[in-house]
Amino acid sequence: MTLPSFFRAGRPGEGSLYSRWRRLAAPSLFFAGVIYYDELFLKLYCFHSLSLPGAVFTLLFSLPLACLLGLLCAGLSPRRGRPALALATLLVCAWMAAQTVYYHLFKTFMTVFSLTKMGMVAGAFGGMALGEILVNWFPIIMLLLPVLPALFCAGRILPGGELPSRGRLRWALLAVLLQLAAMALVLCCGWGVMSLRYIYTQAAVPELEVQNFGMFTQTQLELRRVLFGIEPDREHVNRKKSVPLSDGRQEELPAAAAPVFSPEEYNVLDLDFQALIAGEEDQDLLEMHRYFAQAEPTRKNQWTGYFEGKNLVWIVAEGLCHLAVDPERTPTLYRMSHSGFVFEHFYTPLWGVSTSDGEYVTTTGLIPKPGVWSYSLSSENYMPFGFGNQFAALGYRTLAYHDYLYDYYDRDRSFPNMGYDYRAIGHGLDMELTENFPSDLEMMEKIVPEFVNEDRFMVYCLTVSGHLNYNTEENAMCRRHFEEVAGLPYSDPVRCYLACQLELELAVSSLLDQLEQTGKLEDTVIVISGDHYPYGLLDEEYSELLGHTVDPVFEIYENCLILWNAGMGRTVRVDKYCSSLDVMPTLANLFGLEYDSRLLAGRDILSDAPGLVVFSNYSFLTDQGSYNSVTDQFSSWDGSPVLESYVAEQIAEVQNRVAYSAAILDQDYYRLALNGPPKPESQDRPFRIGPRRSWFQ
Question: Please, are residues 304 and 604 in contact by the beta-carbon 8 Å criterion?
Answer without folding.
Answer: no
